[in-house]
Amino acid sequence: xxxxxxxxxxxxxxxxxxxxxxxxxxxxxxxxxxxxxxxxxxxxxxxxxxxxxxxxxxxxxxxxxxxxxxxxxxxxxxxxxxxxxxxxxxxxxxxxxxxxxxxxxxxxxxxxxxxxxxxxxxxxxxxxxxxxxxxxxxxxxx
Length: 142
Hints:
Blueprint: H1 4-8, H2 13-17, H3 24-44, H4 48-58, H5 64-88, H6 97-117, H7 120-140
């Protein structure tokens, strides 16, 4: 187990994953983009990751693989906050929660492992293909 001191010194895998320090103006832009992603996720119950990837590649200039990995890392806390708000306000139907959570957990592991091996161009094509499919499905019926 890597220590907190090693993390703070930038000597751990997770610390090396993090980006270089950003300027206060850049941090403000990132925070505003994060606010937009969080609002979309909270309002629609999903979609934060679909919005985060184009924002991370376009506005933040991240390569495709880093943008996908960063979006995945953003989804857990984003979803946890949305879930808490929904639970506190009486929203949601939780009858199938545990089986679905187990499937999402397993699928997340498989997807993250595939992400590290997939070519960036393929990820981009798959990502936009899924976005187009979701948009067409929403336009022409559930």
